[in-house]
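Journal club prep, notes for RB
We'll compare a predicted complex against what the paper describes. Inputs for the zinc ion case:
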Amino acid sequence: MKILGIESSCDETAASVCEDGKIILSSVISTQIEEHRKFGGVVPEIASRRHCENILGVVQKALYDANCTSDDIDAIAVTYAPGLIGALLVGVSFAKALAMAWKKPLVPVHHLAGHIASNYISHSDLKPPYLCLVASGGHSHIVEVCDYTKFNVIGRTRDDAAGECFDKAARVMGFPYPGGVWVDKAAQQGDADRYPLPNPKVSTSEYDFSFSGLKTAVVNIVHNAAQKGTEINKNDLCASLQSTIASILTQRTMLAARNLNYERIAVAGGVSANSGIRASFEKVCRLENKQLFLPELKYCGDNAAMIACQGYYEYISGKRADLSLNAYATMPLEDN
Ligand code: KG4
Ligand code: ZN
């Protein structure tokens, strides 16, 4: 069974054809990062306009690369929530038009369910139930993946997401948007013990996160140095920040895994590309004898292969949308 997946929730227009939920026949991503970079973040209106311009070509290329025509496609899966509403609406409207014109079923996919599915692409041995940390620009969730389409979020961030913390800290240090990858590069040359940073606990829930205090601590270090006319060592500050975020994410996720008896742990979302976070999970899972699943780097950030893959599982579970399908800027993973 071949699913065409479409993703447009933020600043990547993407389309992919996936066979049977695991074989990626094509994955096309048109990124707008360069254009948003000069504004230091994604400008929603620009994102929507670029999606409109790009989506036809991206979908055509995905079909071409997969050596498919519309006749080969069994269903169309599309990200319908959460994300920038104007951006999501482009993908949803396009998918609805294709579903109508081609007379194919339409399958709505939650963006975070898509990130979780990115691990099925590279790991055919990964099957629910397992525990997954989803860390992206907008979310930091610890999720019980009870089944392919059934999720229970047991931990979340109370303020900023991990990716947001990376990006805001990177911005104050003068790195381009999105800063996570730059922090990762600089951290490889730095001393993680140089700048002690807070590891804030959320008193009401042992699995919840709070990253805004950490972000503020980095901002204060940079501003204090500027006021005193001293130089910060960016590599050391990046290494300290990365190791603190890695340790917060790893500690909370592993605590949940121990308490709830999960032997298999997965990490997904844009932040799962971070080398320090990957190494931290690898180390702890090896020590605790747990099986770890990490997505291939090309499937960590936003892409449509993960949407097509999750679309397959949603399709076989019977999920369908009609042409009244709407997009939603926010939607809990459990409600989708
Ligand atoms: O999943 P994603 O591509 O988009 C959202 O759904 O938000 O995640 C984007 C986030 C950004 O905050 C970006 O800086 C971060 O993932 N990111 C990284 C790395 N690569 C991407 N953060 C840390 N280290 C990286 N190597
Ligand atoms: Zn994402």
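Talking point for the session: The beta strands are 2-7, 12-19, 23-31, 75-81, 106-110, 130-135, 140-147, 150-155, 264-268, 291-293.
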